[in-house]
Amino acid sequence: MTQTFGDVRWRTLGDAGKPPVVLCHGTPFSSYVWRAVARSLARHYEVFLWDMPGYGASAQYDGQDVSLAAQGQVFASLLDHWGLESPLVVAHDFGGAVSLRAHLLHGARYRALALVDPVALAPWGSPFFRLVGQHAPVFEQLPPALHRALVREYVSSASAKGLHPDVLDQLVAPWLGEAGQGAFYRQIAQSDQRFTDEVQPRYPEIDIPVLICWGEEDTWIPIAKGRELAELIPGARFELIADAGHLVQEDAPAELTTALLDFLAANRFRVPGGG
């Protein structure tokens, strides 16, 4: 798929014709974080995975718009491109904000929505995140070895248990090299809280089933934000995942998959309403 945002890479798992499930990743990750969950879901669903513009295998280039506003538009367009009128959607971190914006601002309809440690409520952004965002051009000039060490440390901190070295290598790889280094700081520089402020007042309008899963050891976004979000969305269910940090897919894939399978199975044949 090609838009002004560049090539968007995506793939599917499972048999066509089964109920569709779309998996949305966050930052600074890619669809790679969903690999184990996707394989399990593919036994019962047609699973769609995609890399947001500027992430993973999708296009990266100077001047690229990788803001949450752009990603929400891309996701809504991608659903149209796939011909999915009301898929089940599972979204992590910034992918949560992307899926919420697509639904509330761009008319994307979902059968049900599962949010995993989503970025959704103000205030958000760690001190490191804000520092980099304010000085992105300076960080872009870091020597490659220092940049690589910074990204590895940052990505590692998303896990409560520690990441396997091979997994860490895969997560860091898209951010290395001249294009990747620029893309890493670009996506942070464009992460403006106003893009969640625009939709936060509308969360009480959401009238589809919503599950909110949260890593009990998440040091990136406090658990309190998950509980607050669940209170804002009518009927939302909140579920803690034990022994997991922000990157729940890596820390507790079996527990997360079980929670998702139960939620998706309960809603796979639901007839979507309005909103």
From TrEMBL:
Pfam family, one: Abhydrolase_1
Domain AB hydrolase-1: 19-253
Domain of life, per lineage: Bacteria
Alphabetical UniProt keywords: Hydrolase
Membrane spanning stretches: none
Organism: Allokutzneria multivorans
Stored PANTHER family: HYDROLASE ALPHA/BETA FOLD FAMILY, PIMELOYL-[ACYL-CARRIER PROTEIN] METHYL ESTER ESTERASE
Stated name of the protein: Alpha/beta hydrolase
Single annotated GO MF: hydrolase activity
